[in-house]
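Q: Could you fold this chain for me?
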Amino acid sequence: MAKDFDTMEDSNRSANPSIHDVSAGERRTVLRGGLGLVLGGWLAPLSLSGCATVPPPRIGFAPVPLSTQDTVVVPEGYTAQVIAPWGDPVGIAGHLPAFRADAGNTADEQAVQMGMHHDGLHYFALDGAHRGLLAMNHEYIDDGLLHTDGTAAWSAEKVRKGQAAHGVSVIEVARDGDGWQVVRPSRYARRISTLTPVGVGGPAAGHPLLRTAADPSGMRVLGTLNNCASGITPWGTYLTGEENFIIYFEGPEKPDAHGTRWGLKRRGAGMRWAEHDERFDAARHPNEPNRFGWIVEIDPMDPTSTPIKRTALGRAAHEGATVAVTRDGRAVVYSGEDAQFEYIYKFVSRDRIAPGGAAANRTLLDHGTLHVARFDADGRGRWLPLVHGEGPLTAAAGFADQGEVLVKTRQAADLLGATKMDRPEWIAVDAARGEVYCSLTNNSRRGTDDAPGTDAANPRARNTMGQVIRWKEDGDSDGITFTWNHFVLAGPAEAGGTVSGDAFVCPDGLWIDPRGVLWIQTDASSTGSGLGHNMMLAADTVTGEMRRFLTGPAGCEVTGVTCAPDLRTMFVNIQHPGESPTSSRNDPAEPARHSRWPDGGRPRSATVVVRRRDGGVIGT
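A: Sure. Below is the predicted structure, expressed as structure tokens.
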């Protein structure tokens, strides 16, 4: 996610305790010796797996050095090809407008072009490893780049163009010799944006808190936005998380307690959409923000299908959603909420996954139980159910029914005493080893005067470097208890880091490939870390070894990774190249000041195709 968004939703001032208060006695015992005791006891690479032997190394490339080059750098023997940059046509027949180098495309043209700021993505095979679909998110926009004159002469057309540049793209890609190309036109090509009708499923569908003047049924939302990380389901659909949705809304002068808990502000983010689209004026339409912050399910194979917001998975500043499967065939969806002092969630479906693909599982994610995580100081943890009528989640506490629990997921988690985390982002599941990994990017407010202090899961005050936490469920993936530890604390050793191999800070994107290699992507400011530009590393989850595989251009975030089924082609997204070190907005008068990647002009987010020159498996 964009680096300057990490505090925009920081409205968590509730009194529910951090982990050091939940398990105070155990915490004192464990932490009496300071951070060193925590590291010595909980960071052994094999402590969760119980494996007695270490398999042969699975990482076989020479790591790349730190970089300050305005380009993508990959290991010796690899190639990096750029495809599908912002502004290129997605491939809808009859609608193939070319990108204008001066950003002069209209809102209607942007609606059929690649969106801005690529993020999570996945490859859906059509013809194995030779042809498939890429579904990818477009997280946010930079008006300084999107419009020829930036934010000058603000207009309804600029609002519409910005809305059209958000959301999700589905494109068809195919191998062409040693490279890959976007297939245009393609019957699969699609753009889903803030202007696309989206359905609502689950317990909050039709709820009074989702009803508006434009949609009195509460069943049909216009659009999805701030789509960050992604996931896939075993039945072939794409899951996308709506993250920093609240910054798009203009709040009243004094938001109520619900709005305040979600970070609603008056003139809080400067998006200015409310000036020309009144649904983003929350003072006039107070329920409109409740219609965002959900996990959205999309069928990439059917461009006529309606995306659905799955409310049973809870409302949050969702980074993404990662699916595991229980032994009896039910879906388990893990998700993190990327904001300071927010939570990690797990949803367990009521029903088993049915054979027959997307058509047979259209409502599977509408029924089940949502839980929030508590990480105890003894290395154990518990999933706390977010169920109306259980514990404090009653009408007396402000939850009239299950729909209200889900709309107010943060408040419900507060009452249950869940552990406040250091910005939980991507989650990766190693099904073979039964381990789950979550990146905690950073939290510079941890331990400051007005914020929760350190705890076992979040052990560093003013945490600017982040960590990766992991856990193993007791029994199956639907278990209520688990064992946890830190896979790694990011940063150099002198700052408390525990990285074995190439150093990094601010872990963000995570993905475990079919061989069991964990890929870690970073989102750190381009200044201050001393580690050059953002990067992607490969990690051996058994030995803990990490090797730097890719570095990005100036000002970028490296985010989103997927492979073709044969693991010989990797797709990686490069987001916001050229972003200013001090702001997520470019100067429209000098749009290429910090980067000219990828084509020598205005910087453009894009997808990078990585292959080995000898055609071998990536990373070996």
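A (continued): Residues 3-612 form a domain with the Neuraminidase fold (CATH 2.120.10.30).
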